[in-house]
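[audit] Reproducing an earlier prediction to check determinism. Same input, same settings, fresh worker. If the C-alpha cells differ from the archived copy the diff job will pick it up downstream; this log only records the rerun itself.
[audit] input (214 residues):
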Amino acid sequence: MPKLNIAIVPVTPFEQNCTLMWDEDTKRGVIVDPGGDTDRIREAVNEIGMDVTAVLLTHGHLDHVGGAMEIKADYDVQIIGPHIDDKPLCEAVETVAKQYNMPGTFKNVMPDQWLEEGDTVDIAGFEFEVLHCPGHAPGHVVFFSDELNFAHVGDVLFSGSIGRTDLPGGNHDDLIRSIKTKLLPLGDEVTFLCGHGQGGTFGEERQHNPFLKA
C-alpha cells in the first residue's frame, strides 16, 4: 500500500509552497508548483532520493510556475495542468517577472497536458481528482484524494483567508462559489495544503474563516 509523504520547499520572495509528494517505498512522486529557486527544489529532491514522475501546476501565476520548464528539463518529465483558461498567464510569466523587478530564470510555461474538471492525476500511486476552481485565477485547479481525505488547493483557500482576486483574471464571486460548491461539500474532515502558509481542514474554514461567513 503506498504511503504518501509530503515536503514543502518555500520558493520565490512570495514564499510559495512548492510541494513534493512521493511514495515512501518507491520514492516515486511529483513536484507541485515549482515557482522558482530551482536549486533549492533539486536539493530537496536529492535529499529525499525522489524519483520525479511529473510536474503538476495548480494555476499560472509566476510564483507557482516560474521554474516549471527548468524542472521539466532537469527530470525529463511532463508538465500537467493547470486548466487551459490559465494559458494567458502561463505565456506571460517572463513579462510579469520584469514588472515585479524579479531577476532570475523565470520562464513562460507550455504544459504538456491541460486539465479539466473530472480528470484524474496519479500522485505517488494515489488517484487525485481534478476540480476546476476559478476565482483566484481563471484556470486554477485543485487536486483531491477521496481515499486520503486530502486536497492540495493552491491559492484558492488559506487558513483563515482566501486567494487574492485583484490580479488579472481574478473574480471574488467566482472564488467564493468555487470554495462553497466544490471544496466544502467534500467534507469537514478533509485536510488541505495551500500555496502559502499553513494548511488546515475544511471544517475549520467552514466554521472560522471570515471570508466564508456571508
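[audit] rerun output stored. Observation attached for the diff report: The first strand starts at residue 4 and ends at 11.
[audit] end
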